[in-house]
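Students often ask what a holo structure prediction actually looks like on paper. The answer is less mysterious than it sounds. You provide the chain, you provide the ligand, and the output is a string of discrete structure tokens encoding the 3D arrangement of the protein together with nicotinamide-adenine-dinucleotide.
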Amino acid sequence: MSKVMLITGASRGIGAATARLAAQQGYQVCISYRQQQETAERLVQEIEREGGRALAVAADVADEAQVVRLFEALDQKFGRLDVLVNNAGMLEQQMRLEDMDAARLARVFAVNVTGSFICAREAVKRMSRRHGGDGGAIVNVSSVASRLGAPGEYVDYAAAKGAIDSMTLGLAKEVAAEGIRVNAVRPGVIHTDIHASGGEPNRVERVKASVPMGRGGEAEEVARAILWLCGDEASYVSAALLDVTGGR
Ligand code: NAD
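The corresponding structure tokens follow.
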């Protein structure tokens, strides 16, 4: 039986690219999305047309009950889980810290941090040898913002991604003996729709001057790093924070 991968926020961007590549590499994929049902269903059909097996499930990762239901739907369809990609993430309009209120901070942390934590918890319950699982891998999609800090733009988002880095290191050690590897990718500036939420759809064009390789990245380039971390070629890699930034 081929391995099962769950990717959150997978209807578009880095998540969708990861789902496509995973299916091409023989994974069965569970595409979790928040709102874009039509796009997610189209992706499932695309994967099935190519001979793969996929399922789309709606879930807001910030809502614990929805996450629990997501994992139950996955159990029903696939009966196992080998890889979790905690990809769902968001940022809000660019602003300086003194203009941010606590409600914004709570929203940003709820999706990026709480969402990743509760999905990891549900995944560990299924993968852990202690619970009768076969082990597995978790990849958290962090951001280079966790070490650059995003000053004047998104220090809240950078702090949330910093929390994801810390969780990656701690959880990797906590579950290593149970056969689970936990790593993170930290993308730099990548061509996706996320920049529109920050109020700067063309952000990649502005920021690329600070990228040593002189260009923004593509979602597929991040997906390839994620797939490598998930797979057997990375069998001795855990607690790693892998920058995918064009050298930034
Ligand atoms: P994107 O906006 O295209 O994708 C983000 C996905 O997360 C979307 O499908 C969105 O619907 C989903 N999402 C948002 N809130 C959610 C919620 N509450 N529940 C479930 N899903 C939710 O952008 P992307 O660039 O593909 O982002 C993917 C990941 O990469 C994010 O974690 C983001 O922070 C990270 N990242 C992106 C960049 C970049 O430059 N694009 C850089 C560093 C890190």
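Residues 84 and 153 are 29 Å apart (CA to CA).
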